[in-house]
Amino acid sequence: MFDWLSQWILKEAQGSEWESRLSFLRLFHYITVRAAGAAVTALILSWWLGPKIIRWLKQLKFGQEYSDKAEEAGGLAARLLSKKGTPTMGGILIVIALLFSTMLWTQWNAQVELTMLSVLVLAGLGFYDDYAKILKQTGGGAPPRVKLIVQFGLAAFVGIYLWNLPARSELFLPQGKAAFHIIHSNLVSDVMLPFSKYPYYVGAAVGVVIVMLTIVGSSNAVNLTDGLDGLAIGCTLIVGVVFLIFTYLAGNVKAAEYLQIPYVAGAGELTVFCAALLGAGLGFLWFNCHPAQVFMGDTGSLALGGAFGIVAVLIHQPFVLVIAGGVFVLEAASVILQKGWFKYTRIRTGTGRRIFLMSPLHHHFEKKGWYESQIVMRFYILCVLCAVVALATLKLR
Asked: Which one of 77-86, 107-116, 383-392 scores highest in mean pLDDT?
């Protein structure tokens, strides 16, 4: 909006005495300026709305009055404070700040609209799940089948839409000293792998499946990570920095040509979205750090995870998300392995056995006696290491 408004004002002032005075408005055309504006706007909006939304959630009694699964299991000697009574659905704050700032500062295009639509749908699904938990006061929430149907439905729509567009990326590969060979690839039917220069054709069906698994897997992985104060949002911020860089490079033809990564026209506007996500995330972390004043709930975690999935697909880097979000992958894998091994051993021996003391993985370390702040900080360190490896794929190919 600001870019359009500034261009309109400059056009109207052209040839008048105001033209030189208003020349500074050209700054709003630069992605870096608008990204910085989106981050600051989202941060300030989060700080301003935070106390109001927390107070509103308390008035509505949208709090976690039940013990979470970790407390119910017992044995958490290192947990000094119970989380009962803390307002949930704080993801509303993140989504409002994120979408409002993005609308103000970005140039609207298909990529931005698709990303914001995905965030809105998944936030609505998460809100429904959180509300169901509050009504039941058991932590059960919405039926898993309902959540998966909505998630896979949205992801299938995105995959089929991108395949039919057809959305394409361009890859500039050197051919001699001054020439480049340009490879055009579809965002769905062609797959880019980390550390590889060339896209691999997998076909529409496999490509759509990869898109669906990326979006649904990322959404649920962030959701599973959301169990300790500041853990999920802190890791989200670290991964967000990675995609802030990737989206800027993918949308800049010269940078993409130099690094030999896929160039996607219009993807640079996703940089503004990622910047708004960072601002909104930092603002939320202010209230979510230990001891948390509010939880993001599924309203925030499903939306943020889905946002990473759709952004990764739109810049033709879905597998980079697996590296950058390594902590999210570990958390999700711990749940899958725990449930799978328990069912397998129960069938084979009659008694279910566990690999971890408890899943997701952060609860395993809680059961081992680690303090909550220890776990969160060490997971941050792991997340930073994963982010560095993900960024290394830009040059090592």
From this structure: 383-392
